[in-house]
Amino acid sequence: MRQAWVFLLPGLAGLLLFYGIPFAGGIWYSVTDGSFDNQFVGFDNYLNVWNNQMFQLGLKNTLELSLICAPVLFLLSFLLAAGLHRIRPAGAFFRSSVLMPYLMPSSAVLMIWLLWFDYGGPVNRLLVSLGGARVDWLLGAELRAPVVLLFLWKNLGFCVIIFLSALQAIPESLYEYATLEGASFRHQTFRITLPLVIPSAFLVAILSFVAAFRIFKEVYFIGGPYPEEPLYTLQNYMNNMYSKLNYQNVTTAAYIFAAVVFVLFGVLFISQRKALQRLNGEE
Amino acid sequence: MKVRGIRLWLARGLLALLAVILLLPMVQTFLYSFASVSEMKAYMQTRGSRDETEWMEAHLSPRQISLEQYEKILIRDHTILRYFTNSAEYAAVILFGQMLVIPALAFGLSKFRFRGREGLFFIIILLMLLPFQVTMVPNVLTLRFLGLLNTPWAVILPMLFAPFYIFLLRQYMISLPDELLEAASMDGAGPYRAFLRIVLPVCRPVLGAAAALSFAESWNLVEQPLTYLTGCPEWMPLSTVFNQLARENTGFEFAGAGLYILPALLVYLFFQEDILSGIQLTEMK
């Protein structure tokens, strides 16, 4: 046991110093007013931040963008993995090209992105040639499209690989046996594939949201440091409060957001349990 | 049977198209980086026109191959090179620090039994799930206490304890058979020697994967420098300046981007197999 501490100590000390202790200590900031005599104000900060317009805008945009990005990422990666799983021979080249963007600095790609989505750029050319009209992608609410697509470009590979390995781990004999028994494709999907893939699906769902909460990166790349209203995220609010040295609001906003995140993950966890129970219970 | 074959080829075609689209931004960046400065400047100036009748020229490769952009950023104008060295220093120091801390921590969490081990690991998973908007707050409080804000250490130090890599290595180490360590202790090797001589070499694939993923993360830093380095722009990494470069239209920004992609590309090609198997480990077992 004493030997274990030699291994654990440096890492745990760092985790405590940079996360544990200040996380607990930060609660003090969120319930005091930060004035000279630093009075205890109870939940006033929480109410103030919660009612603040910019905080609401940031929270709303962050959640909206996450609720677009994460489910799209989830579904798209599942479809791709299923496709790759069925046509194995072409898989190797594709697997490596789908994963590559995950390792590439998206900061260096943003210039190509801005060119593609320019008013006179290739994306609009494609739209027009398909009979559509030009869209001003780099202005207003439309800005979200390039941001979300850059996010998908970057993160797709990671999720595809997790789904793919889950699909490949299912023994082929299970399907052969089911086919011999005369089970339909639908039956096989619901009785074999889904129950065995759900744990990985849960993981991908969680990781999609973890990645989607970092959408600020893509927002910064496409929208710059002071983005328009549809792209103003919680991170912009935090940076703004932080540069004003308003530690009360920064900590309070962080705790509110942490609560929101954990509620979301709790819901995901419970629905995974329910789905597994239902699929297994029917047998 | 014939219909099936056609559908298979159709699916392959679609996947190939998607693969090409996914690779295109990198390819195009490299192609543009070999255009002359004046050609790139002229082309970039046609952006942003909202005239319904005008299109940007369809332009995939430069009209003339030229090394002028690279000459500019490597020899004549050192702005990009300076940010590039910042990035390289961040990536190198972070990787080195993580190597000292994280494998040992993962080993302690997986091959020793003590009370509270599972609880500790659970907390690390929770930390991994928290977005940066949340974890930046405890980080800032400590960094301010230590007086390190607006120094490069503000970016580096919190990254040394990044929970994701602890998680990744721990998942791998916990699946190693205990006999491996028992055999080592029979031979009279203590836990330190067993760790250095047996566990680390056995973990080579996952160490490679973690190193590559960590490099990719610190090569694309945005949130940390923008938050912690507001007072010292000279320490910004290259990843934060492309937005501005694109606006300024210097004519050599694509060589900068090509230069920036190159190390990441090499790391990816070198560690590809490790990364593929490493990512699969993120499954909870």
Tell me about this structure.
- The complex is a heterodimer of chains A (283) and B (285).
- With 283 residues, chain A is mainly alpha-helical.
- Chain A has a domain at 62-102 and 143-281: MetI-like fold, CATH 1.10.3720.10.
- Chain A contains 12 helices and no strands.
- Chain A has helices at residues 2-30, 44-51, 53-86, 91-103, 106-116, 122-129, 144-168, 172-180, 185-212, 216-223, 234-243, 247-281.
- In chain A, α1 (2-30) packs across α12 (247-281) and α7 runs antiparallel to α10 (216-223).
- Chain A starts with a helix and ends with a helix.
- The relative contact order of chain A is 0.13.
- With 285 residues, chain B is mostly helical.
- Chain B has a single domain, classed as MetI-like fold (Orthogonal Bundle), CATH 1.10.3720.
- Chain B contains 14 helices and no strands.
- In chain B, α1 (2-33) crosses α14 (253-280).
- Classes of the chains: A mainly alpha (283), B mainly alpha (285).
- Chains A and B meet through α1, α3, α4, α5 and α7 of A and α1, α4, α5, α6 and α10 of B.
List keywords for this structure.
heterodimer; A: 283 residues; MetI-like fold; B: 285 residues; mainly alpha
The helix count of chain A comes to: 12
Chain pair sharing the greatest interface: A-B, 98 and 103 residues
What percent of residues of chain B adopt helix (DSSP H or I)? over 70%
Low-pLDDT residue intervals, each spanning 5 or more residues of chain A:
none
* CATH class annotation of the domain at 62-102 and 143-281 in chain A: Mainly Alpha
Distance between the termini of chain A: 46 Å
Question: On the 0-100 scale, what is the average pLDDT of chain B?
Answer: 87
Approximate strand percentage of chain A? under 5%
Beta strand % of chain B: under 5%
Structural class of chain B: mainly alpha
Q: Please write the CATH class name of chain B.
A: Mainly Alpha
The 3D shape of chain B can be described as globular
What is the H/E order of chain B?
Answer: HHHHHHHHHHHHHH
Total beta strands of chain A: 0
Determine the oligomeric state from the structure.
heterodimer
Number of strands of chain B: 0
- Cα-to-Cα separation, first versus last residue of chain B: 40 Å
Pattern of helices and strands of chain A: HHHHHHHHHHHH
The largest β sheet of chain A comes out as: none
